[in-house]
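Entry 14: structure prediction run for Sulfotransferase. Input pasted below.
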Amino acid sequence: RGECSCTPVRFFVIVSMQRSGSGWFETLLNSHPNISSNGEIFNRVDRRENISSILQTLDKLYNLDWLTSAAKNECTAAFGLKWMLNQGILENHDDIVSYLNKKGVSVIFLFRRNTLRRVISVLANDYDKDAKQVNGTHKSHVHSKEEVSLMHK
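Run finished. Output tokens:
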């Protein structure tokens, strides 16, 4: 981090629901060279079995050695993850809020304003699992022009 050592790394967590634009938002954040968001780390059940496994996972993420770690960029200014409401955060909210406050983690609440559009997106995504596959697999989000053109065939 040499030239960036006087700039502290800011931690964040994006709290959202599926089909609320969180994938797009995370892609936007990751397009900045000094921001790194690590996706839905709690989509794995073993990482959210209980509060101990949740805190252990958060410690691994937020206690990285920022002076020596090989992050995506030597000048990482903001680092975080995406956490869906159905991935253990609500069941353990008191302990999680306490942990996030202690670590100085900023919480970004991202919700789709129009609930009907979110429901339509959920239904369309469910339909697309079988009808619109890219190279034989389902894509909830497309990340390139090539994937968009494959989806429109």
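Notes: The radius of gyration is 17 Å. Will compare against the previous run tomorrow.
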